[in-house]
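Case study 2.
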Amino acid sequence: MDNGSLRDLEVFVAIAEEGNLTGAARRLDRSLQAVSRSLQVLEREAGTLLVARTTRQCRLTTAGEQFYTRVKQVLADLAMARAELAEYATTVSGRLRICGPTLFGPRYIAPLLAAFLARYPQLTASLDLSEEYDDPATSGADITIRIGETPDSNLIARRLGTIRRVTFASPAYLEARGRPLRPADLKQHDCVVRSALPEAALWRYRSKRGVEEAVQVRGRFESNSTAAINDAVASGLGIGRAAYWQIGELVQQRRVELILTDYELSPLPLQALWLPTRRLPARTRLFVEFLAARLESVAL
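Prediction:
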C-alpha cells in the first residue's frame, strides 16, 4: 500500500466518522478539495458509491458501511504495528549471548554485532568464539552461529548464507611438486588436513558434469586450527582446502593459488541456531533478522 492509498483510506474513515467532508478536512488538516478528491479516487477504484452526499451531510451506503468496518480495523492494525516498531527502538534490552567460529566471528559477526548494539543502546552482548561447536543447551547461548550442517535436529535453524570452499596451494609448492589436474592426483601430493573434522582425510569433489569423486589424502602436517592450516599451506607444506573468505587476501597477495577449479567442493551452509521456545525474545529475533539481511549481500 503506497502513501497515497493510505491517505485516501484515512480520508474515508474521517468522512464516515465526522458525517461530512468539511469536518473530515478539518480533522485531517487538509483542504476540502483534497478530501473530495480522495473520496472520488476510492469510489472510482471500488466501482461503486461509498458515500451518499447532500449539501450538508454525508451518509455511508451499504457498500460504504461494510468497507468502513474493514478499513477501520486495517488502519488500527497498521497503527499498532508502527507503534510496536517504534517501541523496539527504545525498549530492546537485556543481554544477548552469541557463540561463533573463531575466524568467522571477528571478521563478520563482531562488526555486525557492534552495529546492532549501536541501534539498541539498552542492549548488552557477549561474543564467545571457538573452533569447536558449542551446543546451545550447555553453553547458554541465545544464538550459535555455525558453518556446516545442523548437528542437532531439535534446534531451530535460520540459514544466513552459503560458504564457498576451494582447494589451494602456494606457488613454491606447485613449482616443486607440480600442479594436480584432477582429484585423483592428490594421492601423489602432501595435503594439509584439519584433524578435528570427521573424515578429515577424505576429500570429496564433484566435476562440472556432476561426477562425484572421493580421494583419501595424506600429508606431513595436520592441525585442529583452521588458521594454522591456512598458514601451513601458504608456507609451502602442502595442498589445503578452505572457505574462500578465509584465504581471499592470500590469493590477492599471490601467496597461494587456487587449484582444481574445474571440480567443486560441496559448499557449507552458514546458520544461526537456537533452542526451541514458545516465544523468541525480541532481541534474539531482531539480531537474527539483522544478520540475515546484512550477510545476504556478502560474498562468502
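The mean pLDDT is 87.
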